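Hi there. Long-time user, first ticket. I'm pasting a complex I've been working with (about 875 residues overall). I'd like to know whether the download I got is complete or cut off, because the file seemed smaller than I expected. Thanks.
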Amino acid sequence: MGENLFTGIAAWMRTALLDIGTPPLLSEFIVLLVKLLAVIIFVSLNVLWLVYMERKVCAYIQCRIGPNRVGPKGLLQTVADVLKLLGKEIIVPRRVDKIVYLAAPLLVFVPPMMAFAVIPWGNGMAPVEMNIGIFYVLAVASLSTLIFWMGGWSSYNKYSLVGGMRVVAQMVSYELPLVLALLGVVMLAGTLNINDIVNAQRQVWFVFAQPLAFLIYLTAGISEVNRVPFDLVEGESEIIAGPYTEYSGMAYAMYMLAEYANMMVVACMATIMFLGGWLAPFGWTFLPSWFWFFIKVYALIFLFMWIRWTYPRIRVDQLMGFGWKVLVPLSLANIFVTGVGMYVYRAIGW
Amino acid sequence: MRTQTYILNMGPQHPSTHGVFRIILELDGEVVVKAKAVPGYLHRGIEKLAELRTYPQVIPYTDRMDYLASMLMNWGYVAAVEKLMGIEVPERAEYIRVIVGELSRIASHLVAVGTYSVDIGGFTGFLYCFRDRERVLDLLEMVSGSRMTFSYFRIGGVADDLPPEFFPTLDKFLHDLPSLCDEYDGLITGNEIFQARTKFVGIIPPDVAVNYGLTGPNLRASGVLYDLRKVRPYSVYDRFDFEVPLGKNGDCFDRFAIRIKEIRQSARIIRQAVDGLPEGPIMAKVPRVIKPPKGEAYAEIESSKGVFGCYVVSDGSTQPYRVHFRRPSFINLGYLEKLLEGWKIADVIAILGSLDIVLGEVDC
Amino acid sequence: MFGQGLLKGLAITWKELFTRKVTVQYPEERLPLPARFHGRFELDVDKCIACGLCASACPNKVIQMERAKVGKRQYLTKYVMRIEYCMFCGFCVEACNKDALRFTHIINMNQYFRDKVRLVLVDRPAPEVIPEEEPAEAPEGRAAKPKAGAAGKGKAPEGEG
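Hi, the file is complete. Here it is re-exported in full:
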């Protein structure tokens, strides 16, 4: 397992392209395309795996075995499910806003995929290096609000509408503590460049420097991906499936899979910002950097799943109250404390 | 800005109405302005069917009312017929009835606890409860041969004696039960989110509960000590030592928590009944053809949902002239419409779930 | 302290993550059925005296039987259970004085077509005579029995498959 496995492949491709006489700009473009394609394929496959993982984790927590029939250990279960859903009719009810209704499941994968473009999967493994990476991720990730709302609004169903309204209310109010929590890290690192932030954690991970911010980020992050205990958007015992109520077949599956892609984004961001990204803990560099990155991301995803299968759901007014009355003041206080701390540190000449 | 309310039709096909129950909600945003409960989608006319069956043949139909505690449904009916005919049930049969009846109550409360957990959004508690309910069903299957609709009670006794393999399995289950209850308490009852969702939600004051004829855990959660097993002991309940758990506030949380406490108490009763199980016949001397004298009788038992009453009128033939069932689930729903007003959609589910209805019983 | 219950819940689910799983992988593993299990019915024709108690005990009129009078005795020629209406309450089995009708542990009674659901336990023509003498009954009885057996067997694989 080479540290430079993927960067090596990219470098080899670049030189090979240059060798056969491709102009440098074009070859750079082709390499970038390949990188992005690889990320898209990887994320799609990973989403399938995450659905399987969730079903297994949930089953084991609930004293069940979970999928174990399709493929070895049931590994192909999600593939089979997706194939089945592909064969299903996408029912378009009467009086729905057809264009918006059908566009929403198509677009729902776009924001997480866009965010993945700047995620460094390992040392020097970001498909696109961007000096305002954090800003970019936050900007595109909040786009998914709109898409969920499109689905809820266009479905011509009261349950969908209630769900859609909840999406907007919830995501807008939890976006704020999420961003403010990250701000503490950005202050410490002094940069919005993802690579620099990871490198700034060589001494100490920011989870230890900013524990409160980490907790706020996790809470707001779970809320951002609409998972228990903040899954009011779906809230299957109240509003059936929220914005997805009327969807069927692959259109529904797209929403479901996008949820996992979004969860991946939140976990990746938490890893980068707080858990030292691709840095190996305790200098255990015998495993490649991208491997460490995945261990951390999967640990976080497991935490999300564990929480999901333990907690009940909170009510919509409690959710808003918690967001505005607890998380936002806490994250503001965190920023203040961080600022004061930095000033004091600088004053004592550290 | 001009706003208007809208009508949301919750049910009959809705994941959390516990069956085919419909509530027409008039909503202002997410807040309920007015609610209208529409039961009746599972009406099968059991009372009418009973008029065309002989007395013993009604027993399998009573199973299909509260199918989660069908032993208790059997019990209510046979108690009424026995009262009508003046049959003295042998002691061993009474003890067996108590054992299987309390097991049925445990099974029913486990479903109530589990489904309430899933109503609030925690799916895992649901599966833990059903995992353990399975053990109760296994026990009752050993006794009666069926897993849900037992038809185990007979007029004058029970169908069959308890099999020998029943006792060790029961013993093991009773041994595990307290720790299982602790697990539900830890996972569901103690959870702060759960408490935030249920505490002081859907409060039924004690006087209102009495006025609306609420019975069972829903009444006791409001702090009214009314358990037929205690206040008017039937069968052999006066011989057992058990407590009747009471709630304080009469909110959803109390209604939920009281069921777990009742499970613990039921386990106590079963243990005493098994220890005191007398020898003897399991059937009273009952004529081959059951032909009660002209007259009428009403008998009540404490079912898992409340007071289950059965009123039988006989015209002296082999078929009942009229059978009426007082179904506690149905009567407990009476206050629902008032109770829902002013709460949010999510609370509608929480309140309805806390009343623990079984649609088979509501619609009969 | 706020959060205690939340942590306890996590601890419980963490513990359950590693406990033994309760799933029974059904077609390969099966739980043993208790002795009293209410499964498919079986009728011992030799014991049956065609008294009709089972049919009259049934709350749903599931049992349809045809009898023929052969000599002085009732002879069962047809015994059909309309299983689609059966509640498996067990009253018929309980009513049987001769222990001829019993429950088996066969649970698979599903059929693709509704009209195949009916359980034909006996379908045989009535013999001319049932001789009273022991030696003469044997050949007649044997002639009747395989037929009943065949009818029963012909149904059984369908019922199980």
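A couple of notes from our side: The mean pLDDT of chain A is 85. Chain A touches chain B at residues 58, 61-64, 158-159, 162, 228-229, 231-232, 235-240, 309-318 (CB under 8 Å).
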